[in-house]
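Dear H.,

Thanks for agreeing to be a second pair of eyes. The structure we're designing against is below in token form, covering all 103 positions.
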């Protein structure tokens, strides 16, 4: 089930007039009564995805431009990072856990 605020990645759209391509990402702004998934795409597009016609996948938090929390002297600084490896994801999770324990 897709919810408002979910991050998604386009797999396929049948819309011939869109500039969106597979791999483009966006944030779900809502799902209407007929199931159309309305998206604010990172590219600025507002194309909605039609159930049974278009395909997308939900993007994991750590797989989507993760904000890494660096703990330094008890303060957390946000740094934008793309495409984390599995080892980096584990490190980020440990840093989040450490930051949570410090607060």
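And this is the sequence the design step returned. I haven't edited it by hand at all.
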């Amino acid at each position: 089930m897709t919810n408002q605020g979910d991050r998604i990645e386009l797999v396929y759209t049948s819309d011939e007039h869109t500039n969106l391509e597979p791999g483009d990402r966006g944030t779900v702004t809502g799902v209407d009564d007929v199931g159309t998934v309305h998206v604010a795409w990172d590219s600025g597009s507002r194309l909605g995805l039609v159930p049974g016609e278009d395909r997308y996948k939900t993007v994991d938090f750590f797989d989507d431009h993760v904000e890494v929390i660096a703990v330094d002297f008890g303060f957390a600084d946000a740094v934008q990072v793309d495409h984390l490896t599995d080892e980096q994801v584990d490190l980020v999770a440990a840093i989040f856990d450490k930051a949570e324990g410090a607060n």
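Two observations from my side: The helical segments are 86-102. Strands lie at 7-12, 25-31, 37-41, 55-58, 67-72, 75-80.

Warmly,
E.
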